[in-house]
Specification:
Length: 229
């Protein structure tokens, strides 16, 4: 894409503001890729725009969850976030499954599922045409195992596909905001959040959005202060 190349050239020339304008125009056109969001995040980070940098790193990570460069830059940006929100502890098994699921993109899991289906087919051929009884048994058990793994990979690909398209998380985009106990400016202030914090989106009411932090805290804030990932 010519526009993308121009934006990258502007970035190399350290003309970050102009690069951001071009990157944003590409995003608004409907095109998306991990590289695009990663470069946009880098440009914002160079200018000290913390919330937009984290927002675009998060968008890039959704599309390329195993990319080490994206993960590294996101961690570096998060170190600059003032609020340190400690996540609730998870069971080891749950954390282990999540780590496996996010290891590859939906395309990666889908390709693995296809490879395993081919493996199941070949093992089934071994069962059908082998003359040795041991080879037949090996073929049938290997075919069943490959088929089960293919189904698991296909399910994981579907889960990743849905995850990449869900819009249930956001980044706080304002310098600081008081989180309210209800969708009412006169309601009680529960706590304050500063820019760059990632939140989960719950229910919405008018111009208000109910959010949840990774530590379980819940409250309301205006939608205008949030940038959806």
């Amino acid at each position: 894409m010519e526009l993308f190349s121009q934006a990258n050239q502007l970035y190399k020339e350290k003309n970050y503001e102009s690069a951001i304008v071009l990157y944003d125009s590409i995003v608004k056109s409907g095109y998306s890729s991990a590289e695009l969001f990663f470069n946009l995040g880098n440009a914002h980070y160079k200018l000290g725009h913390l919330a937009p940098a984290i927002l675009n790193y998060e968008r890039a990570k959704k599309l390329a969850p195993s990319d080490e460069d994206i993960d590294f830059n996101l961690r570096i940006a998060n170190l600059r976030v003032v609020d340190r929100v400690e996540p609730l502890p998870e069971l080891f098994f749950v954390r282990w499954v999540k780590n496996i699921v996010i290891r590859h993109s939906s395309d990666g899991w889908a390709k693995l599922a296809l490879l395993l289906l081919w493996a199941a087919f070949l093992c089934a051929m071994l069962f059908l045409f082998a003359s040795n009884i041991l080879l037949k048994r090996t073929g049938v058990f290997a075919a069943i195992l490959a088929l089960l793994l293919a189904l698991a990979s296909a399910f994981t690909a579907y889960s990743q596909y849905n995850y990449q398209r869900t819009r249930d998380a956001a980044i706080v985009g304002v310098k600081n905001v008081y989180i309210k106990s209800a969708p009412d400016p006169q309601s009680t202030d529960l706590f304050m959040l500063r820019e760059g914090v990632k939140v989960k989106l719950l229910e919405a009411e008018g111009e208000w959005q109910k959010i949840q932090l990774v530590d379980g805290k819940v409250g309301w804030m205006r939608k205008e202060g949030l940038e959806v990932i």
